[in-house]
Design brief:
Layout (H helix, E strand, L loop, with lengths): L6 E6 L3 E7 L5 E8 L6 H19 L8 E6 L3 E2 L4 E5 L4 E4 L1 H9 L3 E5 H12 L7 E7 L3 E7 L2 E2 L26 H5 L1 H13 L6 H4 L9 H9 L3 H25 L3 E5 L1 H6 L1 H14 L9 E4 L6 H13 L1
Parallel strand pairs: 1-4, 4-8, 9-12, 12-13
Antiparallel strand pairs: 1-2, 2-3, 5-6, 6-7, 9-10, 10-11
Helix pairs in contact: 3-11, 5-8, 8-10
């Protein structure tokens, strides 16, 4: 349908839900942010999302009946044709009919796609990927997610799971739980590695920054230590950059991509120096020589990418 009514864009994560009301002129006019609380169960999450939409509408000074549609990005592989979440590990959902169930609650059309897909689409339409017909997005947060724009369109593949770079096997000879790219390069993995090294008597200012609480080290703390040239954190992040570069560079070689956008909480916290270092690694591994001209950039929309992307997809698909 034409984008004539406000559309809800939702970025549903394992920890937080971000909701934005996007106007036809592509501006966010109302927001709500809430905890997912996935441990309370599927129905409880839907209740909270519904309440969050009501709060965002109140901030935008509109009624829910003024809305045109809802777009939602959810973690894990999604069937975008049916709006079913096939498997969301961090939500503990399997075959969840999210579009149908949320649509019933709201009396609105709902489209569902993968959370990184919608963020990548947002960047492609409005952000750092604008104008690129062949691009990849890699988002580093609790996990590692990815998405592809091929020939100007989101690419899903035969099984509708394209982009799951975090679950690609990176170290096949390693013990279970340490083999995938996500096991090694997510914020969760980075925080765990830093904590284990400190507990093995390696010095780091992270101990001071966290007041000795090494459980659940946040992206902000990692970034502070990185900026302060903490040797331990620098070593860990340099290793992450090399591993990411090998994985992304291989994708550039395989698909002949012109641009890569890095997003997610860890990448955004570490900022331009991190993006530059990953770019160097990508170009080292990309083949042939012309592929080394790939443009590697940081997210321009940051935590708004998923909201914008979900809203834009909903405006196009309903």
């Amino acid at each position: 349908m034409p984008f004539t009514k406000p559309i809800v864009g939702i970025d549903l994560g394992g920890t937080n839900v971000q909701i934005g009301i996007v106007s036809p002129d592509r501006k966010i006019i109302g927001n709500a942010k809430l905890k997912t609380k996935a441990d309370q169960g599927y129905e409880a999450v839907l209740d909270r999302v519904t309440q969050g939409i009501t709060e965002a509408c109140a901030e935008a000074k509109i009624a829910r009946t003024d809305l045109g549609a809802v777009g939602i990005g959810a973690p894990g592989p999604i069937d975008p044709n049916t709006g079913v979440v096939l498997e969301a590990v961090n939500l503990r959902w399997t075959e969840a009919p999210l579009a149908k169930d949320l649509g019933k609650r709201l009396s609105l059309p709902v489209i569902v796609d993968n959370d990184v897909n919608v963020a990548v689409y947002g960047e492609n339409q409005m952000g750092a990927g604008r104008g690129s017909k062949f691009m990849m997005g890699v988002w580093l947060g609790t996990g590692v997610g990815g998405g592809f724009i091929l020939d100007g369109k989101l690419y899903y593949g035969h099984f509708l799971t394209a982009g799951e770079i975090g679950h690609t096997i990176h170290l096949p000879g390693s013990p279970p739980g340490s083999r995938s790219l996500e096991n090694n390069c997510s914020r969760t993995a980075v925080a765990d590695r830093i904590a284990r090294l400190i507990r093995a008597n390696r010095p780091s200012i992270v101990t001071t920054l966290t007041e000795g609480n090494l459980d659940g080290i946040k992206s902000k703390v990692i970034a502070q230590a990185y900026e302060a040239n903490d040797p331990l954190v620098r070593e860990v992040i340099e290793d992450v950059c090399d591993r990411l570069g090998a994985a992304i560079g291989s994708c550039v070689t395989l698909l002949s991509l012109e641009r890569v956008v890095l997003g997610g909480g860890l990448s955004e916290a570490l900022g331009k120096p991190f993006v530059k270092r990953v770019a160097q690694s990508v170009r080292q591994y990309a083949f042939p020589a012309r592929c080394k001209d790939v443009d590697v950039v940081g997210s321009a929309l940051e935590d708004r990418a998923g909201v914008f992307g979900a809203a834009l997809l909903a405006s196009e698909r309903v």
